[in-house]
Sequence to fold (239 residues):
Amino acid sequence: MTAPLLAPARTALAMDDVVLTYPDGDSRVAAVDHVSLEIGRGQSLAVTGPSGSGKSSLLAVAATLTRPDSGHVWLATGAGPVDLATVSRARAAELRRTEIGIVFQQSNLLASLTAREQLEAMAWLDGRPSRARRRAAGDRARELLELVGLGAAGDRTVGALSGGQRQRVAVARALMNDPALLLADEPTSALDTEAGAAVTDLLLGLVHEVDVALMLVTHDAAVAARCDSRMHLVDGAPV
Fold:
């Protein structure tokens, strides 16, 4: 299959008939069962479904953490569309650094770093940065912390941040390299109602403010209803 013409429609991610299976005794079970979808920059897609329905498996495919059995996963990049279903592990890791931001259920912050340093560390992932790049990373980190409402907390360590603040830092970190695609896997499940609502407001606001495509895995119907589009999975298949 040739790459779809993504640019005119501002499509950031396009999945075409994606299948992912896992071994189950003598047979295989479908975790993602013939899923097709599109998400444009500035748009959000909620993925819902019961436990074990394939929500996180679908997100893992989009994140290049799992390669599907078949189908295509087109990601728009500055150099043109890339099929994530066929890239090497090294290329997948590079795309996660540069084009894909991921927010997990837990913030997964490094306890020894301040909030600002959590973001600046992204500049070190592909080698020791130059002095100019370190300055640019510092400026970008401060800008993003302001954007997520933590401009005054840049020098605080993880232990001095609340759960909601930690997840805000995680969101900012995921945006550090200006990705085309932001993936969030139940990002509020470990938070109380108030903090969870604040993180949801933040994510949906950032979709438009930084012009990123958002795939949000959630069990919360109210959150899903606020997204631009929704996909409900049962046994890996859209229903």
About this structure: The radius of gyration is 18 Å. Residues 196 and 234 are 25 Å apart (CA to CA). The chain is about 30% helix and 30% strand. The mean pLDDT is 93.
